[in-house]
Amino acid sequence: MQTKHWRINMSDKPEKFIDENGLRLDGRRINEIRPMKMEIGVLSRADGSCYLEWGNNKVLAAVYGPRELHPRRLQKADSALIRYRYNMAAFSVEDRIRPGPNRRSIEISKVSREAFEPVVLTHLYPGAVIDVFAEVLQADAGTRTAAINAASLALADAGIPMKGLISACAVGKVDGQLVLDLNKPEDNYGDADIPMAMTSDGEITLLQMDGDITQEEFKKAIEMCKDGCHEILAIQQETLRNKFSKLEDVEISDDKENNDVSALVESELVSSEEDETSEDLASIEKGEMEDDVKDAETEDEVESVEEQEDSFQDVDEEDIPDDNGEDVPEDDEETV
Amino acid sequence: MEREIVIPGQLLSENKTDSGPGTYVKDGKVYSLLYGVKNTKNKISVIPFTGKYIPSPGDYVIATVIGVTPSNWIFNISSPYDGLLHVSEYPRRVESDKMSEIMGVGSSALLRIKDVNSSMKVELSMRDRGLRALDVGRVIEVTPTKIPRIIGHGGSMVSMLKKKTNCDIFVGQNGRIWINGNDAEMDLLNEAIELIMKHSHTSGLTERISKFLKNEDDVVSEKDGTVLEDDLVVDTEDKYEIREETRRKVDTLLDDDN
């Protein structure tokens, strides 16, 4: 990270990163993170989204999926694929950067994706893909950690099952001292930079290091980062809870499954009376239907209808040989 | 009965036998997998605010043909996975070359999910009461996780909507709702459904929607929702406890109309 692709002029290096009061260039203490602000559901076309401001970083994350994966050769038979795209906007830094993927962004995309793989329950969606896009609109050191924090909320907003949220933060070394959440001068001219991402239990899912520190410092850095991530986790949780805070009287029908069936059966009965597509079927149904309508108390109705459905299907199956499902067009599709 | 917003990784219970849908067990404790609402009936489950429809056998869905092969119709079921309807699952015998004439690309149908295998191959069926190809009406798409609110407690919402608007309604579990009636009635019903979606996390919804439909019955063309919004705000006083009572009120309201 010492050689970021924006111009580094060593003459810009500050003489001191930490003043005699223990305050950093931007007035923070060594174990303080920059102010963070998040909002979810900011994009209407994405399944989940999050906008994050962290110091001068501005990041927009969007999640699409689980959705069908093309090309099919990328599909995993037993789980969903996660695709993560970290990208810096051309205008995100002072000197315009060339748009499109580059060595740095491809690497960050890979490690960020791997930061999420342990928590997302991909095996629930075999063959599908979950696309995560993290766009850095304004960069000011620590964009990969900012992107991960935003992506974590965007995944939750998309309703994707996760074992927990991921929080990310960096620790670095300036003036021989460990500091939490580097700002731009600290990142550019500091002695070390260690971005980390972890679960709420403190299990590390991403760790990179750039620069030199001792083993003792490294241990301390991890502890500092845990505290930082904990603080970020609290902000993430608050963001999620606040979205619906004014609507506290949340209500969802209790016996969901029963409701579904009874209501659906009911709506079918009404609509099937005008059914013209299959006349012989309808005539068989009508006799049964009248019985159903009479005792239209929901519970009874469900039971009786289901019984009849069974017997009804039995009769049907005799007419047509049971060869369904065997010659499904998988071959056709693959050759296409 | 408390309703609480939970987030992924949140501890829900110390007792692993409480684990229901939307939760997972780690070290004997139950945690949430999803961002949604906690439901503590029998077991603890979490109902997500949003999410994709994942097909499961027995579900009724509204599907659209996206391809026809010699023996199958391929349907979009508004899910990451496509559904297959084999010709033998069509109520009548169909010749291979006639398949496109019966249901071509773009046709919609009411179907039931017959089977889903481990690689998420979805088999559909039309051999069930009421299932058929759709040639009239409209299809509205909503978030699948909010479908229970459209149906309501014991089907109260859907039957109320049906009676108040004179429309036919079929609610598919994949988040698609088919409605059929005259244009003005369908417009009204569409608005009512949008309102349900917007206020899906509040209580006393059936009664409020009933009110909404009553007000608009006289002047169907009047689409000004602002006044109604105010009504809704006042009504949020209704807490969950009096829902049973509310439901009974709705029933009497409905009886009056007939």
What does this structure look like?
The complex is a heterodimer of chains A (336) and B (258). Chain A has helices at residues 103-116, 143-157, 184-189, 215-242, 256-272, 279-294, 298-319, 330-335, and strands at 36-40, 48-54, 57-68, 81-88, 128-138, 167-174, 177-180, 192-198, 204-207, 210-211. Chain A is built from eight helices and ten strands. Chain A is 37% helix and 20% strand. By secondary structure, chain A is an alpha+beta fold. Chain A has two domains: 10-242, Ribosomal Protein S5, domain 2 (2-Layer Sandwich); 256-316, no CATH class. In chain A, the strands form two sheets. Chain A has a five-stranded mixed β-sheet. With 258 residues, chain B is α+β, with helices and mostly antiparallel strands. Chain B folds into three domains: 4-48, RNA polymerase II/Efflux pump adaptor protein, barrel-sandwich hybrid domain (OB fold (Dihydrolipoamide Acetyltransferase, E2P), Beta Barrel); 60-134, OB fold (Dihydrolipoamide Acetyltransferase, E2P) (Beta Barrel); 138-257, Ribosomal Protein S8, Chain: A, domain 1 (2-Layer Sandwich), CATH 3.30.1370. Helix content of chain B is 29%, strand content 27%. Chain B is built from seven helices and 15 strands. Chain B has helices at 99-102, 147-151, 156-165, 183-198, 205-218, 226-235, 243-257; strands at 4-6, 11-13, 23-26, 29-32, 36-39, 45-48, 60-68, 72-76, 82-86, 108-116, 122-125, 133-134, 138-141, 168-171, 176-180. Chain B has a five-stranded mixed β-barrel. Residues 217-250 of chain B have low confidence and may be disordered. At the A-B interface, strand 3, helix 4, helix 5, helix 6 and helix 7 of A face strand 5, strand 9, helix 2, helix 3 and strand 14 of B.
